[in-house]
Amino acid sequence: PSPFVIKADVLLKMSGVEYRQAPMTFSGAPKGKVPYINDDGLVLGDSYFIRRHLETKYKIDYSGGYDAEKLALAWAIERMLEEHLYFLSVYERWLVDENFEKGPRQFFNMAPAPIRPILRVVIRGKVRKMLKAQGLGRHTAAERLELGKGDINSVVALLGDNTNLLGDKACGADASVFGSLYSASSSYFNTELGAYIRSQPKIMAYLERMRTRFFPESPDAKA
Description:
mainly alpha
């Protein structure tokens, strides 16, 4: 369910460093959320700092050979998707009843049965309050969709006919863009934003290329 976990997974696949996936625990998560890694006892949270760790310790080059100007564009796109589009998706999944029942509601199934209803109400209320403070929770559905379309249209314009975000070679930003758009495009949830992403041939072709490359075991991937 997390675009940031997908991002971290792709970064690790890009790196070639051997790793294994494991279930998360809140007690083990240094920042109280996923993703996080344990590298020989060093526990590190947040997908950006996981990338920095891989670059520093294992000398992984995520630049793709692109110049500073191109990488600055990639950074801006990453931040747009992670700090803006992500919260549009959070709203649709947590605060639209139909989607909440299908998705986030299930996160609490491991909690003791008597407190599940209380946790659902409390945490959902915190998400509502957070989105209002962040600003997107103050907009109408039409306004949120308009903002989301602006994000998607920007990616389409930068992507153009490129194989990857910036050109023929993948870079670290592709992990973020793939994770963000793959998650937001999910047809499992009934959202106009997801439908709009799925209506963009260039983005869907990009997602298919990335999925086939990094998750060939996925039944959705084409050989």
